[in-house]
Amino acid sequence: MLASPDDYWRYTKTKNIPGMWLCGLVVLAALCILAQPVAAAEDTAADATENKAVNTLSPAVAEKPQTSTDKQAEADKVETLPEVSVKDKRVIEDSGINRTLPITTITSDQLQRSQPSNIFDAVRSAPGVSINGGPRPSGMSFNIRGYADNEDVLVKVDGVPKGFEKYRMGGTFIEPELLKSIEIQRGPQIASGSGSLGGTVIANTKDAEDFLRPGQKYGAKAKFGYGNNSDEYSRSYLLFARPDERVDILYNYSNRDANNITLGDGSKLANSAMQSVSHLLKFSLFPTEDLQLVTSIVKFEDSGLQQYDVNSATPGFFGYVIRSVDDLTWSETLKYNPNRWVNLKAIVGAGHSDVQDFVPPGLSNVVNQADPAGCVGIVYTPDPSQTNRCKGNATDTYNFKTRTVDVSNEMIFAEKGFFNASLLTGYQYNYSHRDVTRVFDNPVLSPVGGFNPAVPSGTKTFHALYLQSKLEIGQVSVIPGYRIDKYKVEAEGGTLRLLSPFGQASEIEFKQETWSLGLAYDFFDRKDPEKLTLYSNYGQGFRPPLIDEYFTQGPFGFCRSPFMPTQGRPSQICGDYYKPQLSESTEAGVSYQNPHLLGSDVWFSGKLNFYHIHTSRLLSSLGEDDGRVTQDGWERRNGVEIESFLQYKGWYARAGYSRIKGEIVTGHQDLVSAPLFTAPGNAFNINIGTELTKNLDVNLTYRRVSDRDIIVSGNGTLTSPYRFGVQDGYELWNVGARWKASEQVTFRLIGENLKNELYNLDGTFGGIGLFAPGRNVKFMVDLTY
User: Considering the entire predicted model, what is its pTM?
Assistant: First the structure.
């Protein structure tokens, strides 16, 4: 018998976590068979993850044909990199700032400096972005512009959407060690995919070309790290090769093993230990200079004792579970760009997210209350004939599978300098299936088929077509867009038995059209490296109801008394009462970019953005008013976002600020408006760094977050009004240093939360969150071969 939560954690650490060792052996064999003798490389620069684009006329390039991606990158540099002379040796770092769209990219340079422990830590500095829940990654979710639900923010890994629905749990399982860049799109974009009212997070994994030096055929890299806060040990082993000039191969294995997190007051956060394993396998083929084919497989595994409700501000309030996570993403990407009429990108992918919660009796009263005294397993020892007394262990299983197709093509009709015209067209398909079961060791007490009516199984499928044109006439740009989505949501399993007696439909179909329009005016000629741009964007978005919302029955359903005293469904399942939630966003701003600010060698890029968002038909507002089914709740948001980047010789500074205010009206006749309690505190971030010598650089980061309103009690009705409190703001200081001891050895030292501040993370549903980690000092060594 395992007597305590600590016993359960020690038990999980003895488990053998399966991995992709076979894939690693395949890569090793390929390296041995295909690798050619390595030509002596004249360039002894550091590996490509730390190299930056130097604007000189150096002819040294990797031995790989130019791809359509390279062509597009060169085209982008015309608008982003300054014009410099042959003698100008400045290293130009990517600012990551889109001049006219609310898009920020966390670059490879930034990821290397911060060495984040999870993807959420990597994006905290982006304007308009905050994190809910935590501090374990499985308990975190993205909050973009106050949209805090998992389904409000779409996450893609190498172009494949990830989807996971589980009550009070995050659903983004990505190891940051595998990532090259992270693009954050704030608000819905025509080509990103439907449902993302808050925005989209696009994670792109590493390629072999990110590490290969000119003339290099194969190589390897090992990274070892230690963090003192939770005694976290991290290991990463990377193999990369170019056995032929048209073939790139990469395999990366990473794992993390950490104990409980130490808080700012020196106490431990119970059951916050973690044990995770990640793999990345990637093949890139370049049959011609116009064609690129990429296969990517990303796998993540995690296990350990966790809170049932990983977002709760009260550790252990809902009990604990022994949780295991198995997440896999597979994608095939084709890029083909033979001429200006064809710039094709096609992604076919699939994946799964499997979560299993193992719950002995009494470990979590929400899942499996303690059995009566006298139970040994499923046997009631005082009277073994009573087979319905002892449930035994409970096992909750959540299996999510997804398939996707995403094809787009950009046609360039005119490139005349003064007049340019292009058209982007695309098709998207996504299939997601959710299978949820709960079973007990005792089959007599297990639900039939493991069915839990509050958490139904089902599938969701959509097809979408979109087009977006771009017209540039002189210094004016006009970018209209249109998208149509067709959805189908189907119930499965035990839910069919609940619907059938009442003749209620088990399939729901709908279509939704959305429009967008972008306008921009450049004050200077397009060829001028100095750019001052005024812009405005309008966009529509929607979020379809979840399977949970359409087909749930029980305490989370709205189609029962008292929510619907006369219009409630006999099955107590809402079904097509729900309509998609809608949003309209309008934003305007100004951006400025100058490679020689005030005639100096200062490279500057910055943007100021204002936005207003109105969200209608809130799904949470479904109810009854005067005998009518209504869903007329709404939210409004007003915000400002500022981001800038400055570089002077070996110095750089990156800063961001975001502020958001708003209100929510639920729409029920006896409910009143309230402040937008999902809005995070105002945030200011600045990161400053410099190269002290060729082999030594340091950086300093400061983050200030203001107080935020939180719900202390109440449900917003006249009889139980919201009572608000305040979550205190906080400030954090982080530092980092990198010393390149030789071409093969690099050391990194990183200090996080140096003041050891005790502060709360943002909680879900407008509440206060768990305490965040205290001071953490991380030491890492990279060994490159």
Answer: 0.84
